[in-house]
């Protein structure tokens, strides 16, 4: 269960790929927004922080050890613009567990693009990477993310009550999960969450 290098792959509307220093401005366009940072661990970022991460943490494109994470860029094919990013982390090699997260530039929201991107990253996780179970941890106030989890076919496994002092507030967290066989079932004939968008 590992990934040596993020190989770019495409869906109907998107190209998923590793990030490069050329993505700095596009990342800054949404990672500086307070509205984007409400329910994510990071605070609004500066250009310098983004530039630094692009050559350190976000330059990593391999998943081999517990705790390794990759940040996958979401590029809109039509415009060529980087419109968001998806994180994928190995939480336990032994247990075959991974964690997914997503951030979309709100200028591109409400069109199903984050759903399309996350769905394709689940293909990568359960396919090439051989992960067995993927989770998402979502603040209960983050209704857009909760809907996204549900659309992806993720099950709510837990509601943690005031488990975290998050940005100065004791917050509740929902844990969503999906197993490889559950994801595969959504691609059987007559699926509820059919896949018409991933092309390898
Ligand atoms: C979470 C986040 C990525 C969701 O973005 P989004 O725009 O709602 O998600 P999508 O791009 O998949 O769009 C889904 C919406 O498009 C609509 N839509 C339109 N066309 C669609 C299509 N072809 N397929 C699916 N949905 C479509 C859906 O109905 C849905 O709208 P609804 O939520 O009002 O029902 C975004 O809100 C975000 O980046 N938030 C800040 C970062 C964050 O909190 N990350 C999560 C940390 S856990």
Task: Briefly say what this structure is.
With 200 residues, this protein is of the alpha+beta class. The protein contains five helices and eight strands; from the N terminus they run E-E-H-H-E-E-E-H-E-H-E-E-H. Helix 1 packs across helix 2 (47-54).
What structural keywords apply?
alpha+beta, binds coenzyme A, eight-stranded mixed sheet, Aminopeptidase, 200 residues
Taking the alpha carbons of the first and last residues, their distance comes to 18 Å
Strand content: 25-35%
Low-confidence runs: none
**Remind me, CATH topology?**
Aminopeptidase
Per CATH, the architecture is 3-Layer(aba) Sandwich
Number of domains: 1
Number of strands: 8
How are the strands ordered across the major sheet?
1-2-3-4-5-6-8-7
What's the helix count? Answer: 5
Bound molecules: coenzyme A
Instruction: Return the average pLDDT rounded to an integer.
Output: 94
How is the biggest beta sheet arranged? 8 strands, mixed
Topology pattern, helix = H, strand = E? EEHHEEEHEHEEH
Shape: globular
Structural class by secondary-structure content: alpha+beta
Which CATH class is shown?
Alpha Beta
Describe the structure.
There is one protein chain. The chain has about 200 residues and is α+β, with helices and mostly antiparallel strands. The protein has one domain (about 10-185): Aminopeptidase (3-Layer(aba) Sandwich), CATH 3.40.630.30. Helices cover about 20% and strands about 30% of the residues. It has five helices and eight strands. It has an eight-stranded mixed beta sheet, sandwiched between helices. The longest helix is centred in the middle third of the chain and has 14 residues, at about 115-125. The protein starts with 8 loop residues before the first strand and ends in a 15-residue tail after the last helix. The protein binds coenzyme A.
């Amino acid at each position: 269960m590992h990934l040596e290098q993020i190989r770019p792959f495409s869906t109907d509307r998107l190209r998923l790929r590793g990030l490069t220093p050329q993505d700095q401005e596009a990342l800054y366009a949404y990672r500086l927004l307070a509205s984007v940072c409400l329910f994510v661990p990071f605070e609004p970022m500066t250009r310098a922080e983004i530039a630094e991460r692009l050559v350190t943490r976000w330059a990593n494109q391999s998943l081999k050890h517990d705790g390794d994470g990759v940040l996958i860029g979401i590029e809109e094919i039509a415009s060529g613009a980087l419109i968001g990013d998806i994180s994928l982390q190995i939480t336990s090699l032994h247990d075959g567990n991974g964690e997914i997260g997503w951030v979309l530039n709100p200028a591109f929201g409400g069109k199903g693009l984050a759903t399309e991107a996350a769905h394709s990253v689940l293909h990568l996780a359960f396919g090439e990477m051989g992960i067995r179970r993927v989770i998402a941890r979502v603040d209960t106030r983050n209704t857009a993310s909760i809907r996204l989890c549900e659309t992806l076919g993720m099950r709510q496994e837990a509601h943690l009550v005031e488990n975290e002092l998050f940005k100065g507030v004791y917050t509740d967290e929902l844990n969503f999960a999906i197993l490889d066989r559950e994801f595969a079932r959504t691609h059987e004939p007559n699926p509820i969450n059919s896949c018409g968008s991933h092309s390898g």
